[in-house]
Amino acid sequence: SNYVRLCVSFLSGLLLISMCLGCGGMSTTPPGSAANLRVIQGNADAQTVNVVVDGTLMKSNLGYLSNTGYFTVPSGDTMINIQAPPPNVSSLENARINLPANSHTTFVMDGCCPFEHSTTSFADDTTPSPNGNAKLRVVDASLSTTGFDIFVLPSGSTPSGAPTFSAQAFNSASAYLTLAPAAYDVFVTQTPPPGGPIGTVLFHTGAITLSPNQNRTVVILNLCSPGSCDTTGHTLTSLTLADLN
């Protein structure tokens, strides 16, 4: 009867509303499920790229030796696709990483020339240092046929004694240093033979000023041209990224 059909229709509507309320909406990210991602384009062959995360274009025309800054994505298992931009769209690199909820992560695409592309990612520390201090770490994202030592020194100093970080490996990050607010220089030197003197200075960032409660990441990269890259460590550059403040 019409009465029965009316009741069935009414109950079906209630069920649909209940299901929609239960799922919370198809496009809503539940509170606490977001993560923060930052991408560095360090591959000279790729030059300008698009950054696509889980099928969504997050940054277009990201240039060589630049970074996106942090953007927000859903946490969990995440597919990062680095693409050549239009008109010749193609996938340059795919990487799947896990992004914990409320985390901050730096993703790097580097490599060059015969080495093509490589990627790595690092968890970023966005917690302030106690007592108004600052934090600094160094990421080595540079191709090199020689080992690197890293010196983090008060500005105006020159390398002496033991390095701050010894024989840092490609695509690795140092621990964060806790430092008093001041200006600091980062030196990259060639790792000497055991017992030998301090190696040749290959690169020097210049003064990096750290203010209270700032966290910084210094990324060491090759300064290359498309199809050509000096891997002796004599053509390096750096990016200084703000992890906090």
Elements, N to C (H/E): HEEEEEEEEEEEEEEEEEE
For the residues shown, what is the average pLDDT? 87
What's the β-strand tally? 18
Beginning-to-end CA distance, first to last residue: 68 Å
User: What's the gyration radius in Å?
Assistant: 24 Å
Net shape: globular
Measured by DSSP, the beta-strand proportion falls in: over 45%
Give the biggest sheet.
Answer: 5 strands, mixed
How much helix is in the residues?
under 10%
Structural class: mainly beta
* Total helical elements: 1
Uncertain segments: 1-29
List keywords for this structure.
245 residues, mainly beta, five-stranded mixed beta sheet, 1 helix, 48% strand, disordered N terminus
Quick rundown:
By secondary structure, the chain is mainly β. The protein is built from one helix and 18 strands.
Strand-helix topology:
Layout: H1 2-23, E1 34-41, E2 49-53, E3 56-62, E4 66-67, E5 71-74, E6 76-84, E7 90-99, E8 104-110, E9 118-123, E10 134-141, E11 148-154, E12 165-168, E13 172-173, E14 177-179, E15 182-190, E16 201-210, E17 215-222, E18 236-244
Parallel strand pairs: 1-8, 10-17
Antiparallel strand pairs: 1-4, 1-5, 2-3, 2-6, 6-7, 8-9, 10-13, 10-14, 11-12, 11-15, 15-16, 17-18
Fold and architecture overview:
The protein is mainly beta and 245 residues long. It is globular. The chain has one helix at 2-23; strands at 34-41, 49-53, 56-62, 66-67, 71-74, 76-84, 90-99, 104-110, 118-123, 134-141, 148-154, 165-168, 172-173, 177-179, 182-190, 201-210, 215-222, 236-244. The protein is built from 1 helix and 18 strands. The longest helix has 22 residues, at 2-23. Mean pLDDT is 87; it is low at 1-29. Strands 1, 4, 5, 8 and 9 form a 5-stranded mixed β-sheet that branches. The N and C termini lie far apart (68 Å).
